[in-house]
Amino acid sequence: MATICSLIRQAAEAHSEHPAVRQRRAGGWCEVSYGALFEAVAEVGTALVELGLGYGEKVGILLNAGASWIIADLAVLCVGGIDVPRGSDFSLEDLSFIANHANLAAVITDLPPEPIERLREAAPTLRFVVRLGDPGGAGAAVIPWGQLRESGRALLAAGDRRFYQRLDQIVTGDIATIIYTSGTTGHPKGVMLSHANLISNVTAIRENLPIHPRERFLCVLPPYHMFERTVEYLALACGGCLTFTDKNNFRGDLAEVRPNIVAGVPRLWELLYQGVADRLRRHRWSAFLEMLLEGSRRFHRAGRGGAGAARLLGLASYPMHLLAEQLIYKAVRQGLGNELRFAVSGGGMLPAHLDEFFAVAGVTLLNGYGLSETSPVLTVRVPHDNPMGTVGKPLPGTELKIVGENGIEVPAGQPGVVWARGGQVMLGYYKDPEATEQVLRDGWLNTGDLGVLTEAGDLVIVGRAKDTIVLRGGENVEPEPIENALLLSPYLMQVMVVGQDRKYLAALVVPDLPAIEGYARKNGIDLPAGDAAAQHPAVVALVKSELARLHNGKPTTRNYEKIIRFRIIVEQWTLASGLMTFTLKKKRPAIAAACREVIEEMYREG
C-alpha cells in the first residue's frame, strides 16, 4: 500500500520542474518546485536522523502555514517519525501540555527563545529544538533551520542514504501524526492517525474529486487543521500548486492567484458573502439590487423543484435572475478569480443562506463533513451531485449508519447519531484508552453528531450529540471548563455557553438573585422587586464584569473562546422542568430549545 511519502516522492519525479508551493516574501512571491521541495525534505529528514531521531519518536511542529511547514511535516513522516502539529500562536499552557503529554523528542518552531525554554521545562523528553530565524539566546541545543538543512545537504552529498532507507521501511499501520483536539476535561485529546489513515482519505477523495496537475490551490487555513492538511496532501499527490495566504490577504490573493480550488471553513464563505452584502447595501440602487437577488433566488428554487403558484412565480422571475447575473453574480465570480473550478466548505455546518447564495451565483461550493478522528473527510458533495442542505455521500470505502436512542440503526429519513467506518478512522486517542473505548466499537466510530441519511444516500447533519462547540471558523471549544470558571462568581448560579456553527460564543446566565440583592444593598443600588431585578442595568453590568474577570479578561483565553454576548435568564434549569438530568447535568439541547428565541436574539445583534 502506498503512503503519503511515496505519493509525494512519485509526484516529485513526475512534476520535478512544476511549482509545488508559492508564498509571499518581501517584494513578491517565492516559488518552490516539486524537485526542490523533495530535496529539502530529504535534507531535513537526513539531518533529523543524524541528530538521533528514532523511528516512532515524536516531533512537535509549531509553525504556521508555508513551505517550511510542509518540508518539516514531510521530513518527519518520511523518516518514520510521528509529527505533532500545533500553531505557534497557541497559548504556552496549551503547547506545554502537548509537549509533555506527547513525550516530544524534538520541536521545529518559529517561537522566540523564552517560550522554547518553557517547553523544555514542560517536556523532559525534549532533546533538541530546530528554530526558524535567528536562534540567538535560545540555548546551545537550539539549531537554526538553515544550519539543519545545510547539515543534511552535506550528508546527502557524501552518500548518506539513511533518509531513503527509512522512507522504504515505513509500515502503513504505524502512527504518522497525533492531532490534539479539544477534550471534555478541558485538556486536548491526541488523535492518533496512521499512514494508512492518511493515504486512505487522500485516495478516496481523489476518486471523487479528480485533481489535475498544475491546478492552483489557495490555502488560508492553519496547517494543524486536519482539513487543510489533507487538502495539501491531495494537491501535492496530484501535482497541484499550493499558494499560501492569510485572512488579511485572502480577498486580494483570490484575484491575483486566480485559484482553481479553494477549501475553507463556513466562516470564510460568510466573510465573502458579507462583503457582497455590504457593497449592495451601500449602493445607490440597493433596494433594486435586493429585489433582483430575491427574484433570482425564487427562480433558482423553482428550478430545484416545487409546484403550483410558487413554481410559476419562480419561473416568471427568470428576467430578474438574468439581470442579477449581469449586475451582481458576474462580479462575485470575478472576485473569486474567474477560474475557480470548485470550492469546498468543511470544519463546520454551512448555513443554508450561504449554500444557496453561492449556488445561485454560479459558484460550485461543495459541502463536506468529517472530524479530526476521521483524517478528516467522511462525506463530500461533488460537482455533478451537489444537493444543497446536505454534506454529500460517503467517500468510497466509507460506511455510515444512523443509530437511534435505543442503539439500533434507523432507516433513511430518521434522525440519530452518525456512526462511521472506513480506512480513515483513527487508531484511537493517545494515552487515553477510556476515551477511545467510548467512541470506537468494532471499527465503528461514534461521531457524536446527529444526522439523517436521505433516500438518495446523502447525509444531513442536524446537530451535535456531544458538548463540543464547533464555531463557524472551525475552532473547537469545550463549554464545560468555561462554565465552571464562570460559576466561581458568587452572583452566577447557572451558565450555559452556546455557539454551535455561529461566529462567536454567547452565554445564557441564571443569576443568584439573593446574592445580587445583597450586592445592590451594599452599593446603594435600588433594584425593582422580583424577577425584574435581573434585567436592571447595574445587574447586567455586574454580570458583564464577572465574565471579564473570570474568563474574557484572562490572558490564556483565546479570542474565539471569549463570550461576546450574554442574556440573563431568571428561571432556573431544574430536574422538574426537564432541563437537568438526575445527576444535575445540563440537558443542553433541551435548554437550547427552551431558550431558542433568546439565543436567536443574541446572534441577530451581530
Task: Explain how this protein is built.
The chain is an alpha/beta fold and 606 residues long. Among the domains are: 4-170, Rossmann fold; 478-604, ANL, C-terminal domain (GMP Synthetase, Chain A, domain 3), CATH 3.30.300.30. It has 21 helices and 27 strands. The strands form six sheets. It has a nine-stranded mixed sheet with strand order 2-1-11-10-12-13-14-15-16, sandwiched between helices. Strands 4-3-5-6-7 form a five-stranded parallel sheet. Strand 25 (492-498) and strand 26 form a beta hairpin. The radius of gyration is 26 Å and the shape is globular. The mean pLDDT is 92.
Envelope shape: globular
Which CATH architecture of one domain would you pick?
Answer: 3-Layer(aba) Sandwich
Question: How many E strands?
Answer: 27
Strand content: 15-25%
Q: Which stretches of 5+ consecutive residues score pLDDT under 50?
A: none
CATH C-level category of one domain: Alpha Beta
Helical percent range? 40-55%
Q: Any chance you could write out the topology, listing elements then pairs?
A:
Layout: H1 4-14, E1 19-25, E2 28-33, H2 34-50, E3 58-62, H3 67-78, E4 82-85, H4 92-101, E5 106-109, H5 113-122, E6 128-131, E7 142-144, H6 145-157, H7 162-169, E8 175-181, E9 189-194, H8 195-208, E10 216-219, H9 226-237, E11 241-244, H10 250-257, E12 261-264, H11 266-282, H12 286-304, H13 308-316, H14 318-335, E13 342-345, H15 352-360, E14 365-370, E15 377-380, E16 393-394, E17 399-403, E18 416-421, E19 428-429, H16 433-439, E20 440-441, E21 444-453, E22 459-464, E23 469-470, E24 476-477, H17 479-486, E25 492-498, E26 505-511, H18 513-522, H19 537-552, E27 563-568, H20 588-594, H21 596-604
Helix pairs in contact: 1-2, 2-3, 2-6, 4-5, 8-9, 12-13, 12-14
